[in-house]
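Email to the structure team, subject: MaoC family dehydratase N-terminal domain-containing protein model.

Hi all, the expression group asked for a predicted structure before they design truncation constructs. Nothing fancy, just the tokens so they can compare against earlier work. One-line instruction: predict MaoC family dehydratase N-terminal domain-containing protein, return tokens.
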Amino acid sequence: MAIDTAAVGTRSPDLTVEVGRGRLRLFARATGEHDPVYTDPAAARAEGHRDLPVPPTFLFCLEMDRDDPWAYLTGLGIDPRRILHGEQRFTYHAMAYAGDRLTLAAHISDVYTKKGGALDFLVRTVEVTRADGPVATLTTVLVVPGSRDAP
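Reply from the structure team: attached below.
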């Protein structure tokens, strides 16, 4: 089944999350980050940060805080177990820190097909903001096996 292009523009409910120090420390350990600026508030302040900075790629994890992070897929009839993560892009507008209250506003920004219908692509954009403005734009490209065989 090809993904219906009418899905473009479909929005997920906004999600607001407070970034905690413990979660940032856990992420730093999980990703092998040894720079104390990501785990020690004093080291972060010594480097000019107001608190622990949010490391690159961390914002992607916040989407998993949704009650059903895959609802946008299942709503389109896509089985999340069949998707491939094709690409992830981050465009940063401002630093985020522990204690920040971030809002994630997500929408489907594109849908297209390749390989004669064998592969469908779904592009989802997430705008991350806090009260004082934009923090980052996340773009995810998911690959969904299509219903037709490639030529």
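The chain has one domain: 5-145. Residues 5-145 form a domain with the Thiol Ester Dehydrase; Chain A fold (CATH 3.10.129.10). Ping us if the truncation boundaries need rechecking.
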